[in-house]
Amino acid sequence: MTLTIQVKQLIKDKGFTQTQIAKECGFSGGALSSYFKGTYKGDNEKLETALQKWLDGQTQKTATFVSAPDFVDTPTASKIFADFDFVKMFGKMGVVYGASGVGKTQAARQYTRANNNVWMITARPSICTINEVLYEMALELGISDAPKRAGKLSRMLKIKLAGTRGLMIIDEADHLPLKVLEELRILQEDSEVGFMLIGNDKVYTQMQGGFNQRHEFARLWSRNAKRQSVQKNSKKDIDAVATAWGLELTDSKLMTALYSIGQGAGSLRALTNYLQLAGLTARARNEPITLALILSAQQQMG
User: Which residue among 37, 145, 217, 228 is least packed, with the fewest CB closer than 10 Å?
Assistant: First the structure.
């Protein structure tokens, strides 16, 4: 089977695009397209070498890589989905806050994938000013030629969002200062679409003015129709994860260990990491994931 046929078969079976493959190989999409047609006038040997390395890499991934389930529908995720539904349906503002690693972001990403007119951006230290946050929202909405001026951006976003009955999710919202939160509040009210802020406990305390509800926070705080605290995962969450990984819920020793690992603040993410490493070892040995492999992975990862 020729190199071209092998790559085209992967494109068909795995959903790769020529542009994606070309980028990963260090060539332009046009160069790869010409190569497939037999009309490439560049260094064919160099392109073929890069393409063969890419193909070998994909074969190695298929043989050794064990990925976590794309998404596990835990009871905690279902609660977050219900809050998203409410905020989206009634055009309100809400906040989901709590410990890191309990599934808030994964639930938000899944909800974004599964629903129309749901957009998600992530705040960070470099994206925490009014201009940067509004610009990020514009890009998420598909406005590729968005202006950089805050006023013009805000008016454009209001028009773009109005009438969509959509939901704008802002993850890591604890990075946002009061003036940005106020801008989002006004934009939410003007456009009448749902806005959901996600973050750690700081986003909650910031929105109520710290430990004292000061006057300047009153307008923001009173607009929050949904406030969901997620501080740790339940045993039923762990059961859902174990089931997704094909583990036996009837194995009492195994499940006791998983509950111990996964119920602390932020531990669901750690548990998934341990299961992934344990899965690699299990696959290499051609055996199922066992408690011993999970505990070994936990020890290796510290």
Answer: 145
Q: Are 237 and 75 contacting, i.e. CB atoms less than 8 angstroms apart?
A: yes
CA distance readout (Å), 269 to 14, 237, 241: 27, 12, 11
| pLDDT tens digits, one per residue of 196-205 | 999 987 766 6
H helices of the chain, where? 3-14, 18-25, 29-37, 44-64, 75-90, 104-114, 130-140, 150-161, 178-191, 201-207, 218-222, 235-244, 252-262, 267-285, 291-300
Query: What tens digit of pLDDT does each residue of 101-110 get?
Result: 889 999 999 9
Helix, strand, or coil (residue 219): helix
Q: Reduce the DSSP state of residue 69 to 3 states and report it.
A: coil
Query: How far apart are alpha carbons 100 and 260 in whole angstroms?
Result: 17
Nearest to 272 by CA among 231, 240, 234, 229: 240
